[in-house]
Design brief:
The chain has four helices and twelve strands. It is of the alpha+beta class.
Length: about 170
Protein backbone atom coordinates (compact mmCIF):
# COMPACT_ATOMS: atom_id res chain seq x y z
CA UNK A 1 0.00 0.00 0.00
CA UNK A 2 1.38 3.43 -0.94
CA UNK A 3 1.60 6.35 1.49
CA UNK A 4 -1.22 8.13 -0.38
CA UNK A 5 -3.47 5.06 -0.20
CA UNK A 6 -2.73 4.73 3.50
CA UNK A 7 -3.68 8.39 4.09
CA UNK A 8 -6.97 8.13 2.18
CA UNK A 9 -8.00 4.70 3.48
CA UNK A 10 -11.22 4.96 5.51
CA UNK A 11 -10.72 4.62 9.22
CA UNK A 12 -14.27 3.32 9.76
CA UNK A 13 -16.52 1.19 7.61
CA UNK A 14 -19.25 2.72 5.45
CA UNK A 15 -21.90 1.04 7.65
CA UNK A 16 -20.36 2.36 10.88
CA UNK A 17 -20.28 5.84 9.35
CA UNK A 18 -23.92 5.55 8.19
CA UNK A 19 -24.97 4.41 11.67
CA UNK A 20 -23.14 7.32 13.30
CA UNK A 21 -24.62 9.89 10.91
CA UNK A 22 -28.12 8.56 11.68
CA UNK A 23 -27.65 10.13 15.12
CA UNK A 24 -27.45 13.64 13.63
CA UNK A 25 -30.85 15.25 13.20
CA UNK A 26 -31.17 17.20 9.94
CA UNK A 27 -33.96 19.34 8.51
CA UNK A 28 -35.72 17.74 5.54
CA UNK A 29 -35.99 19.66 2.29
CA UNK A 30 -37.09 18.96 -1.23
CA UNK A 31 -34.70 20.40 -3.78
CA UNK A 32 -36.39 21.21 -7.10
CA UNK A 33 -35.18 22.36 -10.50
CA UNK A 34 -36.08 22.26 -14.18
CA UNK A 35 -34.50 20.03 -16.80
CA UNK A 36 -33.53 21.65 -20.12
CA UNK A 37 -36.64 20.10 -21.71
CA UNK A 38 -38.86 21.79 -19.09
CA UNK A 39 -39.52 18.66 -17.00
CA UNK A 40 -39.72 19.25 -13.27
CA UNK A 41 -37.14 17.40 -11.21
CA UNK A 42 -36.69 17.10 -7.46
CA UNK A 43 -35.48 14.95 -4.59
CA UNK A 44 -35.67 14.76 -0.80
CA UNK A 45 -32.51 16.10 0.81
CA UNK A 46 -31.18 16.22 4.34
CA UNK A 47 -27.75 17.47 3.23
CA UNK A 48 -28.56 21.16 2.89
CA UNK A 49 -26.62 23.76 4.84
CA UNK A 50 -25.59 27.38 4.92
CA UNK A 51 -21.95 27.84 3.98
CA UNK A 52 -21.19 31.56 4.02
CA UNK A 53 -22.77 34.87 5.02
CA UNK A 54 -20.47 37.07 2.90
CA UNK A 55 -21.37 36.26 0.22
CA UNK A 56 -24.50 34.28 1.13
CA UNK A 57 -24.04 30.66 -0.02
CA UNK A 58 -26.03 27.48 0.50
CA UNK A 59 -24.86 23.94 -0.21
CA UNK A 60 -26.86 20.90 -1.33
CA UNK A 61 -25.33 17.44 -1.39
CA UNK A 62 -26.54 15.07 -4.12
CA UNK A 63 -25.48 11.46 -4.70
CA UNK A 64 -23.79 10.74 -8.01
CA UNK A 65 -26.33 7.92 -8.44
CA UNK A 66 -29.39 10.16 -7.92
CA UNK A 67 -31.85 10.31 -10.82
CA UNK A 68 -31.76 14.11 -10.40
CA UNK A 69 -27.97 14.41 -10.41
CA UNK A 70 -27.47 15.35 -14.06
CA UNK A 71 -30.27 17.91 -14.01
CA UNK A 72 -29.28 19.59 -10.73
CA UNK A 73 -25.60 19.79 -11.61
CA UNK A 74 -26.28 21.42 -14.99
CA UNK A 75 -29.17 23.67 -13.96
CA UNK A 76 -28.71 27.40 -13.54
CA UNK A 77 -31.00 27.49 -10.52
CA UNK A 78 -32.73 25.40 -7.89
CA UNK A 79 -35.16 25.85 -5.02
CA UNK A 80 -34.71 24.48 -1.51
CA UNK A 81 -38.19 23.78 -0.09
CA UNK A 82 -37.79 23.35 3.69
CA UNK A 83 -40.54 21.03 4.88
CA UNK A 84 -42.85 21.06 7.88
CA UNK A 85 -44.27 18.06 9.69
CA UNK A 86 -47.34 18.12 7.42
CA UNK A 87 -45.09 17.24 4.46
CA UNK A 88 -44.07 13.70 5.51
CA UNK A 89 -45.86 12.07 2.56
CA UNK A 90 -44.31 14.53 0.09
CA UNK A 91 -40.85 13.85 1.53
CA UNK A 92 -41.39 10.08 1.16
CA UNK A 93 -42.64 10.48 -2.43
CA UNK A 94 -39.61 12.58 -3.41
CA UNK A 95 -37.30 9.98 -1.83
CA UNK A 96 -38.86 7.17 -3.91
CA UNK A 97 -37.21 6.09 -7.16
CA UNK A 98 -38.96 5.46 -10.46
CA UNK A 99 -42.14 7.43 -9.70
CA UNK A 100 -43.47 10.77 -10.91
CA UNK A 101 -42.61 12.71 -7.78
CA UNK A 102 -44.78 15.65 -8.77
CA UNK A 103 -47.95 13.53 -9.02
CA UNK A 104 -50.37 14.62 -6.36
CA UNK A 105 -49.90 18.28 -7.09
CA UNK A 106 -49.15 20.98 -4.62
CA UNK A 107 -46.31 22.50 -6.63
CA UNK A 108 -46.30 25.81 -8.48
CA UNK A 109 -43.90 27.44 -10.94
CA UNK A 110 -41.72 30.28 -9.65
CA UNK A 111 -42.78 33.41 -11.47
CA UNK A 112 -40.22 34.46 -14.06
CA UNK A 113 -38.26 31.20 -14.00
CA UNK A 114 -40.74 28.32 -13.94
CA UNK A 115 -38.70 26.42 -11.34
CA UNK A 116 -41.09 24.25 -9.31
CA UNK A 117 -41.66 25.01 -5.65
CA UNK A 118 -44.00 23.97 -2.83
CA UNK A 119 -46.04 27.06 -1.87
CA UNK A 120 -46.84 25.84 1.63
CA UNK A 121 -43.23 24.92 2.51
CA UNK A 122 -41.96 26.34 5.80
CA UNK A 123 -39.23 28.18 3.89
CA UNK A 124 -38.32 28.63 0.22
CA UNK A 125 -34.84 29.54 -0.97
CA UNK A 126 -34.43 30.10 -4.72
CA UNK A 127 -30.75 29.85 -5.62
CA UNK A 128 -28.52 30.50 -8.61
CA UNK A 129 -26.03 27.66 -9.04
CA UNK A 130 -22.50 28.93 -8.45
CA UNK A 131 -20.16 25.97 -8.22
CA UNK A 132 -20.08 22.18 -7.98
CA UNK A 133 -17.42 20.24 -6.10
CA UNK A 134 -17.02 16.46 -6.15
CA UNK A 135 -16.81 14.95 -2.66
CA UNK A 136 -16.61 11.17 -2.60
CA UNK A 137 -19.83 9.65 -3.91
CA UNK A 138 -21.65 13.02 -3.88
CA UNK A 139 -21.44 16.37 -5.61
CA UNK A 140 -21.77 19.49 -3.48
CA UNK A 141 -23.83 22.12 -5.29
CA UNK A 142 -23.26 25.67 -4.06
CA UNK A 143 -25.87 28.31 -4.72
CA UNK A 144 -26.41 32.00 -4.10
CA UNK A 145 -29.86 32.76 -2.67
CA UNK A 146 -31.79 35.01 -5.07
CA UNK A 147 -35.07 35.03 -3.14
CA UNK A 148 -36.10 33.80 0.30
CA UNK A 149 -39.75 33.38 1.27
CA UNK A 150 -41.10 32.25 4.60
CA UNK A 151 -44.05 29.93 4.28
CA UNK A 152 -47.38 30.11 6.04
CA UNK A 153 -45.75 28.79 9.19
CA UNK A 154 -45.30 25.06 9.50
CA UNK A 155 -46.49 23.55 12.76
CA UNK A 156 -43.06 22.01 13.29
CA UNK A 157 -39.97 21.45 11.19
CA UNK A 158 -39.64 18.01 9.64
CA UNK A 159 -36.40 16.32 10.68
CA UNK A 160 -34.56 13.17 9.55
CA UNK A 161 -33.21 11.37 12.61
CA UNK A 162 -32.36 7.70 13.23
CA UNK A 163 -33.52 6.81 9.72
CA UNK A 164 -37.01 8.22 10.16
CA UNK A 165 -39.05 11.43 10.02
CA UNK A 166 -39.56 13.31 13.29
CA UNK A 167 -40.34 16.78 14.54
CA UNK A 168 -38.78 18.74 17.36
CA UNK A 169 -42.28 18.92 18.85
CA UNK A 170 -42.28 15.11 19.30
CA UNK A 171 -39.47 15.49 21.81
CA UNK A 172 -40.74 18.56 23.68
CA UNK A 173 -41.43 17.84 27.31
Amino acid sequence: MTAVQEQTRPVVSAQDFRDAMAQLAAPVSIVTTLAPDGRRRGFTASSVTSVSLEPPLIMVGIALTSSCHATLTTSEEFVVNVLGEEHRSVARRFATQDVDRFTGGGFAAWQGTGTPYLPDAALLIRCRTERIIRAGDHDLVFGTPREICSGPGAAGALLWFRRGFHTAREHDG
